[in-house]
């Protein structure tokens, strides 16, 4: 599996992404609550797609949203939807992109199985957090549902969703894990960076 395959896959899916999206607002609210997303935060949305969570961040009054995706077509669709001055859309590989400043909250929503080197991703994102900041990996479905969905639609660009205990161990190398949930409605692991 290579990065070009992933880009092509998501470029092809971009035109229909919003129409095919299934949202559970209560689950999204719980994920963002667990991540502590609040007014004034500087948020990084990793693998943002067409900007699915951007309205949720704006509703919470965050000060700045940096949304990054490797797919040019996903970012193009997001740019057509969002022109607010505090929304910054970047087409880049988050694992190698050098951000100008650190973030209060970093969210990887419905995207983690598409990163083929998860340990490297977590290390990079932990480094992009401000002291006291929170990194969250989350899905709006159960782990079993995500894996089943990817097997039928995205097996060539997905490694499967890591067991929450394994992800907790990865997080624990850099962060203090504050949330670990895996049930029939959602999956989330969140960790806080030490303040000192």
Low-confidence region ranges: none
What is the rounded Rg?
A: 15 Å
Number of domains: 1
The CATH topology = Rossmann fold
In short:
With 196 residues, the protein is of the alpha/beta class. Helices cover 36% and strands 24% of the residues. The protein has helices at residues 3-13, 17-20, 25-34, 54-59, 72-81, 118-127, 143-153, 164-172; strands at 42-46, 64-69, 87-91, 103-109, 129-139, 176-182, 187-192.
Give an overview of the whole structure.
By secondary structure, the chain is an alpha/beta fold. Helix content is 36%, strand content 24%. It has helices at 3-13, 17-20, 25-34, 54-59, 72-81, 118-127, 143-153, 164-172, and strands spanning 42-46, 64-69, 87-91, 103-109, 129-139, 176-182, 187-192. The longest helix has 11 residues, at 3-13. It is globular. The termini are far apart. One of its GO terms (molecular function) is methyltransferase activity. Residues 43-133 form the Methyltransferase domain. This is Methyltransferase UbiE/COQ5 family. Keywords: Methyltransferase, Transferase.
